[in-house]
Amino acid sequence: MNLADALPMPHRYRGRFAPSPTGRIHLGTARTALVAWWRARQAGGTFVLRIEDLDGPRVKAHATQQIIEDLRWLGLDWDEGPDVAGPHGPYLQSHRLSRYARALEHLQNAGAVFPCSCSRKELADLASAPHGGAGPVYPGTCRSGPAHPERPVAWRFRLDAPPAFSDVLRGPSPPGLGPGDFVVARADGVFAYQLAVVTDDAAMGITEVVRGDDLFDSTPRQLALFGALNEVPPAFLHVPMLLGPDGERLAKRHGATSLAELRERGLTAESIVGCLAASLGLAEVAAPCTAASLVPAFALSKLTTQPVRIDPGTLAAR
Ligand code: GLU
Per the count of CB atoms within 10 A, which of 13, 39, 105, 307 is most buried? Predict the structure, then answer.
C-alpha cells in the first residue's frame, strides 16, 4: 500500500485542473484530468476548473468552450469554474491580471526578483551547461543590474537553491531539480506561467495540484514562489506521461488523439475512460466504464509511476 493512501486527506481537499486553451483535449490531458477529478471526488473535496489563457498567441478562440464540452462528455464535473462561477473566481487567468500585478509587486518589494534585459537568444547561445525541460539555466547576467538598461526588462526570480519536495506519487524529488533564476513577468508585460499558477493556486486554496509530469521541473520553482509570497504550498502529484507506440510523447503523428476525433470515430466516453484507467494501472483490462464508477476503486497504490505506451490506432478500432 502506498503510504499516501493510508494518510488522512487534508481537512478540506481542494483540487484543480488547469488546462491552457491551445486546442482540443487529447488523451494525455484527459488522463491527467481524470486523476485530478478522482482524487477530489474520492476525498469528498472541491474540484476547480481554471483556464490558463495568458499566453496570447497560443490561445485559440473557441478552445475554452470546447475544453468544457470535452471534459463534460468524458463524464467530469466541477464545483467552481468559468461556466459555473464560485467564490474564488474569475476562473479565467486573463481576468485575473490585477492579482498577478499585486503578486509581482510583493516580490519586487521583497527583493525576490530583479529586472533582466537578457534576450531569449542570448541565453540560448550562452547555455552550454546541461539543462532539463525547464530551459537553459540562467547564468546570472543581470543579477546586480540589467546588462542592457535601454531594453525593456523582464522580472526574474532569484533562485539560489531550488527547494526539494516529495511528490505524492513518486516520492522525493532528485536534488537540484529546476535550478536557475526564472522569469515571472516577461519584457512584453505578460505574466509568466510560474507566477500566475502560484498566485491562483494560493488564492483558490488548492491543497493538491495534480498535473502531467512534464511540469515536474517547475515544482521547485513554484515552491520557492509560494515561500516568497508567504503562502502555504499545496501537495503535488505528477501523472506519468502517455507515450506513443514508439516510446515518444503521445502526439498527433501517432494518430487520432483528441477526444473530439475519437468521439467522431464512434468511441464512447466509457471506452476511453476504461482504456485510460487501464493505462494508469487502475484496471487490469480496458473494460468500458464511467469516470464516476471508478471513484471508489481509485487508489494511489495502484497508479503506475512509469510512462505508459498507448496506440491510439487500436483504441479507435475498439
Ligand atoms: N496550464 C498548464 C498546461 O496546460 C498546466 C498548469 C498546471 O497544471 O500547473 O500545461
Answer: 39
